[in-house]
Amino acid sequence: MSYIYIMQLIYYLSLIPFVIYAIRHYVIGSLAIIYHIRKKRANNHSFYDVGNITISVIIPCHNEESVIGDTIRHLINQDLPPYVKGYEIIVVDDASTDRTPDILKKYSELWPTMIKVIRKEKAEGKAKALNYGIKHSNGDIIVIIDADHFLERSTIHKLTDMIVKGKAEIVQGACVIRNETDNILTRLIATDYYGGYYADLPGRTFLRSCPIAGSNVAIKRSVFEKIGLFDEGILAEDTEFTIRAILNGYEVKYIVDAKSSEEAVTSIRSYINQRRRWVNGHMNVLKKYLIKTILSKNLKIYEKIELLLFEFIYTVPIVGFFSIIFWLVIYLTHINLGTNVIFSSIQFGLFMLLALFYELFVGLLFAGKLRNLIYLPLYIIKSYLDIIVVLIGTIDFIMGRKKWIKTERRKSRP
Questions:
Q1: CB-CB contact of 62 with 96 (8 Å)
Q2: Which one in 3, 66, 213, 344 has a CA-CA gap of 20 to 30 Å to 256?
Q3: Cα separations (Å) of 50 from 47, 83, 115, 252, 291?
Q4: pLDDT value at 163 more than 80
């Protein structure tokens, strides 16, 4: 076998993961359309207003002076349903060194029966702070909110309604970027979020692989009692908990109308630091649950395939990186792989690009943000930045680095 045939074989094998994930984009995008059609037909505002439920909101924070006050105010002003007999906001101060403790003290003094501040003297990361807060909570339902998330007035009601009705035990809400117009990067991140929260998550509810996204999520206390708290040894504690819950027979329900907003990073450096942490944590989740997912008896075949694709999601940019190297070698060495390979590469490239844009289009359509389609050319450029981020995060994983790099904030608009 000549080296030409070997190179052609490598090329065609490299197409396999891209084709698989392209099909996944088409499927999820189409299922998202069904989700939104069903939602429009259903009476989504028929709430269940009886019962006696206690809700605990847990906010882990470290040096969040620029946003924590606004976050608490949005939680204080929630339109709580009649079935709530107790409502507490627990802020776990993870050894903040800025003005965060002073701000928290002010609010706890203004609302002593509602707001509880727990101070940790050593910063140990989000997962430990969350677990610390859960252990000190009294709620039948635990709502997890990041320190920069501003909730709409009805969000707590919408998140907990399905749990009170007995239709869910874990419910994830939607999130949008409130500083979208800051610069090109924030516009691209916002576009990502529209695709994620209005297409990806809705579509994945049909495949029983909808994840919790780390914030704006309600979890019944009994879930923690059965499968344990968040894994403190993994940076992507939300992804780890998602996989563990699904493998234990739970399903994450999704409510697109339970909305919050968060602040996107505004610099390339902050973007890389944030996303490399996500990649590192996700790779550890893959390592921990790959075999367990394959051997799981709680999943149907299509559910198992989808969960495995979710676990392997960050390997696709790695294959993309080596594909770039492959074509660079071909170009520099003037190897002729034949016109069939060249034409097929163009065809498959368009097929995969259209798959990504299809799901993104669905998200933008139902988010009412079709004007963001003008950013698609820049979105392609951003994909190369994402490849670099994934490579850095993967190296962090291989080297065993698990340091939490805090996301930088600026003063947010309420």
A1: yes
A2: 66
A3: 9, 5, 25, 23, 43
A4: yes
